[in-house]
Amino acid sequence: MTTRFDQSPSADGLWTGLRGLDGQPCAITVADGRIVWTGAPDAVPAAHVSLPRHEGGGALVTPGLVDCHTHLVYGGQRANEFAMRLAGASYEEVAKAGGGIVSSVRATREASEDSLFASASARLQSLLAEGVCAIEIKSGYGLSLEHERKQLRVARRLGEAHGVTVRTTFLGAHALPPEYAGRSQDYIDLVCREMLPALHAEGLVDAVDVFCERIAFTLAETEQVFQAAQALGIPVKLHAEQLSDMGGAALAARYGALSCDHIEHLSQAGIDAMAAAGTVAVLLPGAYYTLRDTQLPPIAALRAAGVPMAVSTDHNPGTSPALSLLLMANMACTLFRLTVPEAIAGITTHAARALGLQDTHGTLVAGRPANFVLWKLQDAAELAYWFGQRPVRCVVRQGRIAEGAL
Prior knowledge:
Blueprint lengths: L12 E7 L5 E7 L2 E6 L13 E11 L1 E3 L11 H8 L4 H6 L4 H10 L2 H17 L2 E7 L6 H18 L2 E9 L10 H18 L5 E4 L8 H13 L6 E3 L7 H7 L4 E4 L5 H10 L2 E4 L1 H6 L8 H7 L3 E3 L13 H10 L5 H7 L2 H6 L17 E4 L6 H4 L6 E6 L2 E5 L2
Parallel strand pairs: 1-4, 5-6, 6-7, 7-8, 9-10, 10-11, 11-12
Antiparallel strand pairs: 1-2, 2-3, 4-13, 13-14, 14-15
């Protein structure tokens, strides 16, 4: 039986017997759910020495993981489309046959809020057990005010129930709903003039996203959504350059986007714009793998330009049914050729930045909420090396010992 998060033990005290990513011994002091000190074991402040102790036994410690791009709340599943693609159908052919995003829209609209919460909660538990302490959850399978609201309400409930930082992203411009077939502009007007203002007023929107692609929305339609978000003071991000080079990344950068995600077809102009704007590149190897893509993201060019690279599961029912952020780190290394330090930063520091959480998550710094993970590992490289196992010893989330035991 799983312990309710609010009944989990406090992490307050002195955490010793830890090793940092550099392999050196370290210690952490937690008080009132926040990190108040971190440093070498022989430099523990005198006032902390008598605090209750949590012995790490030589465990590797990292910041809590951050999954910065997910579509966690949805109805149904799309295993049949997986089979279609294996039989030779393309992503676009699946969509044109009535599959793709629209099939998840049907199932999500039919599902109750409680059933969506139950199914998403089970998926979230898998991510939390692996050390995720912050997560983005997008809407985009409702495509109407009523059902987008339902998705975002579930996302908020998940954060409260599981004691995890949730950032909600309104992705009303994910696909054209069937009732708006042939009326793309009318739907974008609805998104900008009715849906976004209403959901924002209800406190359900932390960021706004658009699927800018030839099978989704144009640059002009994307900019209209960005302008609506900007008028409300909401940050933006973008599904950009996944299937073709639409120039979406450069547009998003002009609006100071938190991130551009997928980016397999990203151009040098897009890279330069992102670098100038401080926009994070979010790599989604799960989708690349599932779709059997062959166009690699321009990793070397992103690296050369100094664009921070995050890594995420992109959990969704159609193109990345992944529930392991560590597996995504491995894929980012093996498929995209990230280094181990890049992959670790991609699921911690840079992922936090992609959600605008760089001041509270992604690093072990005094004054921040206590979100960290103890791993039964000898070397930091093992975080990206193993797949198919969970080497978590203990997860401290929001100042509580949320998973595992010492």
